[in-house]
# Entry
Amino acid sequence: MTYFNHMRMESDSSSFDERIFEALLGHSVEDESFLTRPGKGYSKRSSHIQQLRNLCRQASEVAFDELSAPSRKALAASERFLNELPEGCLELKLAVSHSGEINFFFGDDAHPFQALIDDTGLVSFYGEVNGEEIRGSDIAPADFPGLKLLKFLDQKK
Amino acid sequence: MQTSAEGAAVDVDPEESICRVGYEADVAIFIERQFPQTHDPVTGLLRLEEISWQDLKKRGFSVQMKSLYSRASAEESADFKNKNWSEKLGVTANCRVAGVHIAGVKAVNDIVKADGKSAFRVLNTRTDDFPSHAEIRLVDGLDKSYFLQFRQELRDTLGPLRDVDEIDR
# Structure
């Protein structure tokens, strides 16, 4: 019995959504070769973290007048947020607001799923698809519902 | 006009229009050197990250009352940005006006919460130095997830960039 078949037996098979699981893993559940190589999302994740650090550094260099750089807490929370995202959620855009808030945009530009981390280091988010809203405010990055975001992106396809 | 909760500020007349100037430059200078323009170059819409929580809750999201503003004032503001960046950052950005986002105050007031009440207030914050200045603020009692929802609606209401001459029409 494979690891995943075992997991499927342990889970409620009637509600198990294989597509979600595959998106979390970033590959087919039949493909177990990933056990001997780095995950596909590794380079994307590290690239986002690099970009985030660059944006924060740039922001701190030009912080004057009404401009503020992201706080250390916001940067640390954003790195944690990126590290905990499911692999199927790594197509995203990052942007820093002039007041130091860190924005994450997923999906299409017209109606994206938005997440925001401000100087409190907490995550707020909002997305709407097919009349269903996904929202939350001021939660710890570890509590961000990555599966709901994955479902949102899946429904947008 | 009603007396506002924000000190002496009052609501802008719903018949007024407000505008937000869009800028572009030769180098990535906007929102702390991420982009060479304040708008999305594909859609022409204001970038969502231009509308921050701090702005909508504390500082006020700056706009201009269209009837009191002019193209000349918009161009002066671009010159001011060039001077500021040159002095403080040593950057020659060649910032200029790319166009203007315009909305009726009534349209902004029509962005409503589940209870049917406006999510925003548009406040007259004019001063002697800035006689057309106004601010948009999120009303009290909305958490950040609602801010994210309503800033998207505000961006769409302000619409894509229009010709800067629209300010004077």
Remarks:
- Residues 1-6 of chain B have pLDDT under 50 and may be disordered.
- DSSP finds five helices and six strands in chain B.
- Residues 17-158 of chain B form one domain.
- The first helix of chain B runs from residue 30 to 33.
